[in-house]
Amino acid sequence: MIIIKTPAEIEAMRVAGKRHASILEKLSGLVRPGISTGELDRAAEMMVKEYGDTPAFLGYKPDGADRPFPATLCISVNDEVVHGIPDDNRILNEGDIVSIDLGLWHDGVVTDAAVTVPVGKISKQLEDLLSATEDALEIGIAAAQPGAQTGDVGYAIESFVNKRYGIVREFSGHGVGRMIHEDPYIPNFGKSGTGERLVPGMTIAIEPMLNIGKAGIEMLDDGYTVVTHDGKQSAHFEHTILITETGNEILTKK
Ligand code: MG
Fold first, then answer.
1. What ranges do the domains of the chain cover?
2. What is the Å distance from ligand 1's center to 164 Cα?
């Protein structure tokens, strides 16, 4: 069921989104060779709680998982696509790329956003992957107009990517706000003129995941970490947006 948010919920999501953006920006600033993903996670938890808010992924048990997620952030390095578990023994190295995904509860509503950032100096190939994935997110957001359909968003992203990268198909954007994952699902590929219609008051997360190599993925034995099948790197950018009468508003932006 698609949930149209009330004006009060939308206002709370605006506040949450600004905090969310500021936390992701501060975390990105902490990323450097030698820092562990566990350290980034503790910093994130402190920042969320400083505002009096609650980490949304910590303790969240997705359908099919056999235990709740154990951390504030999903941190996914290099060939890890999404849902990597932070670890004090996982040290970031120069040339890595790291996806930082945060869910934030504030005043009864939840926002979802992610960035992928370079660790020190990265290769031109990885720079291109990061900018293409960020651009794919922007293109998807531009397609998420009132009256458009979820397939239009996927179509826009897939056309933009134009087979330059593998588009992960098993995970997709989604409604968000009263729950972390709500209807509708918003794949990063598809046909225009198909899927659910976007209407004002809907709040959705759009989140393309692009792989340098092929689209195929697999899950590690920890039950969470998703990696590329071919071992090549993957990037992920995500925003929570509001569909308005005239377009949309990015909520997870400062
Ligand atoms: Mg999400």
1. 7-250
2. 23
Q: Is the pLDDT of residue 64 over 90?
A: no
Q: Any idea what DSSP says for residue 198? A: P
Question: What is the CATH number that goes with domain 7-250?
Answer: 3.90.230.10
What string of DSSP letters covers 146-178? TT-BHHHHHHHHHHHHTTSSEEP-S--EEE-SS
CA 174 to centroid of ligand 1, rounded, Å? 7
pTM over 0.70: yes
Q: Inform me whether the pLDDT recorded for 72 exceeds 90.
A: yes
Distance 171 CA to ligand 1 centre (A): 9
How does pLDDT run across 110-144, given as a tens digit for each residue? Answer: 999 999 999 999 999 999 999 999 999 999 999 99
Report the separation in Å between the CA atom of 139 and the middle of ligand 1, taken as the mean of its atom positions: 17
CB within 8 A of 186, min separation 6: which ones? Answer: 140, 150, 153, 154, 172, 173, 174, 195, 204, 205, 206
Ligand 1 center to residue 236 CA distance, Å? 10
Rg (CA), the chain: 17
**Span from the CA of 147 to the centroid of ligand 1 (angstroms):** 22
Residue 33: band (very low, low, confident or very high) from pLDDT cuts 50, 70, 90: very high
Instruction: Find tokens 């235990």 and name the residue.
Output: 67
Q: How far away, in angstroms, is 238 Cα from ligand 1 center? A: 7
Work out whether strand 217-219 and strand 209-211 pair parallel, antiparallel, or are unpaired.
unpaired
